[in-house]
Amino acid sequence: MDSEQTASGDSSPLPDCPRCGKPVAFSAATGPYTGSVSPCGCSVPPDLLADLWD
Prior knowledge:
Layout: E1 26-29, E2 35-38, H1 46-52
Antiparallel strand pairs: 1-2
């Protein structure tokens, strides 16, 4: 996880969404090939969800 700076200048301890780059607070696998992240709401396959929290 990179410690990039947010728009306010603070570094975020949260991982970045692999789709849009915004910080991810929650992730959920909704099926064997589907998942989503919040608060951005991007669709992310479950194999990428595991990489967020490494």
